[in-house]
Task: structure prediction
Amino acid sequence: MDYSKRLHALIPGGAHTYSRGDDQYPKNAPQILSHGKGAWVWDADGNKFLDYGLGLRSVTVGYDYEEISEAGIAEIRKGNNLTRASLTELKAAETMVDLFPWADMVKFAKNGSIVTTAAIKLSRAYTGKKFVAMCAEHPFFTYDDWFIGTTPMDKGIPRESKSSSLRFHYNNIDSLKKLFDKFPNQIACVILEPVTYLSPGPDTCGKDLSIKPDYKNCADKEKSFLHQVKELCKKNGAVFILDEMITGFRWDLQGAMKTYDIEPDLATFGKGMANGFALAALVGKKEIMELGGILKEGAERVFLISTTHGSEMSAFGAFIKTIDVYKQKDVTAHLWKYGKEFTDGMNALAKKHGIQKFFSVEGYACSPYYFTRDRNKDVSLDFRTLFSQEMIKGGVLIPWVALSYSHTTEELDFTLKAADKALEIYARALNDGVEKYLVGKSIKPVFRKYN
Ligand SMILES: Cc1ncc(COP(=O)(O)O)c(C=O)c1O
Result:
């Protein structure tokens, strides 16, 4: 059955996230999935795949991890969405704020995009300034205009909506200084992910990406890019926002900010918070967050986040249980350990096939990235497609590398077996031409102007 055709007939893009789309996968990828369990997913024909996509990184413990699913279901049985705030909502707020000693308040939402946009709005309201400085190397902050307007896919977005969005570069403090010089006293906030696959330096604070960073015990901590950004924000009266959508609940239960020993003014979380249940959060200091409150008599109001489904109890119940599981099982330690073995294993195979200059796994062990390069050593989507295609033949769905507590030795062995064969084909394609081995079209960039 052609599920793809049916999906595209009904849903623009064929899925509810562009990164789930057909243009992001090789032709032999499963068109539609029926369910997941642990680290595995099944397609509609019953084929089973080991999954490194993990619901766009929203699943960090494992699909349908029983305790967490049961906690979500128990809240559904209580009515799921009540007319006023629920007891579960209060407990979730206490759980979240307890994790982050620097933060006083939290506002939950269903998607990360909502909370990053809310952080921007709050910063503008707090400072009375207009411009937003965002890190150019961080690929996604929100589906809203202030960010999407800065990508090549800006159709439908008025120029005014993006005219106050500015970009600086990661690990390049001068690029941010220049923005503050060019727009003095006009920048409301700086938003960035704490890190992706590059250390925020200096090398004396931890060059080895296989080990969880410990900046608290590093004498040179203040020289790191993140600490310099915070200092610049302070000096210029801008709100310092860390977007921990990917790093949160991976680097450490208390976020990458804990490992870099840095406290922002506002932070955003989502993805792995509730093991696939829809939950995101904006946390922050009281003086900023309470602008969205209703207690200060006579204060001008800020319409922060206000949505019908923001109080859904199943997501809160799943979140509270997810945090329990993280504490009991030390989930983040597992991610670091598995990720190191994965990285070492994959790079050893690339070496075995003599292609280590063309295929590599890099980045922090708890969240590795794979890079595919062509014969000229240029980053190549054709070769990314080929690798992905060959891994699918071996039963592994690996659009990127998201890890979970359910990825164990068995999953690692299965992965390395599939990669051994995939990289053998990769090596041949470097010699014979990739076209000879690709069975369909190549993956395309998400943010492209035209189809
Ligand atoms: C760093 C970052 N921020 C924000 C978002 C937006 O989150 P959501 O897709 O839940 O709206 C994403 C999603 O990929 C992200 O990676």
Notes: Residues 111-113, 116, 140-142, 193, 243, 245-246, 270, 280 surround pyridoxal-5'-phosphate (CB under 6 Å).
